[in-house]
Protein 1
Amino acid sequence: MIRLHVPHDLSAGAALELDEGQSRYLAAVMRLSAGDAVAVFNGRDGEWRAVLEAVAKRVVRLRAEALARPQAFGPDLDLVVALVKRARLETIVEKAAELGARRIRPVTTERTNADHTRVDRLQVIATEAAEQTGRLDVPQVTEPVRLDRLLAGWAEGQEGGRRLLFCDEAGDARPILEAVADSEGAPWAILIGPEGGFSPREREALRSLPFTTPATLGPRILRADTAAIAAMALWQAAAGDWRA
């Protein structure tokens, strides 16, 4: 069944008017008609079965009928990733959504080549991935910040007790499966560096912080998109909802 993320509050009998993009998708691309059913979710009220009541090229109206799945959330995991080239960053965002990240937080570092990105475009990619994978929420993509600024806020307690898993390509850290083995249920963030790696100054600073946990991804240097996917998969296997 087609799944759509919607902003509306969801309850039995709720009327939903879709935006032009979603309306065009259902009417022109998928060629649905009145009486057909879709699944809708908003990240708050669970997933609902909804029926198309009116179909036009620019406006499709639905009515929510029955709760299919109550609201649930995956583990509290953020992905902090240095800006990289557009195509690779879009892949990272898509896979992070598929792998269950709650937030995707771009940062700039001393060796970051890209200095900006379209957060609105990345949010669309995250939303589409959430629709396709069956999750009941959509990860938030935040505006890029400097890594040193992010770490300063972390040190001031702005992240609460969240740990930061620092993927260090130097190769002298513990494997991720060991580094997070005893942290099931705890909030974490995974930090992935830029295409040129972290600078020596950044690596030294990260190693000195009490809330960071350095970990290695093995003997080979991985591209940022590969590293992000590998790190999230390993974290999910060790401490996330892949253990269920």
Protein 2
Amino acid sequence: MGDGEPSLRPADVTTALDTALTALRAADAAFDYRVGGTSAALLQGVRLPAGDIDLLVARREHVDTFAAALSSFPCLYPASWLPASSQYFTRYEINGVQLEISTVEWPVDADGMECVGPGPWRHYVVVTCGSHRVPVVRLELRLATELLRDRPDRYEPLLDHMGAHGFDSDLLRTAMNARDLPAERRRMIQERLTSASPA
């Protein structure tokens, strides 16, 4: 999301997801998925800039099934393989919100990454979006991604929220190790969150 672009509100994300998942349910399709990216943080109560919704699925046919279910909505990028990022990817517009659905097909064993390997499938919470219960990737994994990207406009709100509401220290350590963040930065983040955590 570039400078000056409007950020999504939680209600934008909830409404678009509810609409998309209702279309998927109407197509009688069911498979696992995860909401990741900044929209996952928004859905968990973090106020930070978000420009779209990212849905992770395990198989390419799930992307195709979702695309078929969303065929009445504007398709901004037809389902196709993106070799540079090892993704099978599509993008739709739902109620003015961009919804991206993809696989991420990197061979990764690490358990602490947000959108590759086993991490997103093991570490998530379920939130309500309209008539749906939606699995969203844990904030600890998102924070490690934003620290790696060095985006303070994203990681500072995450740190504030996690400091106020609590976090899983072991999971955060796993996520920062998986992203190979420098040890000094990992210690600084742990100390900041631990000192800010509610008693």
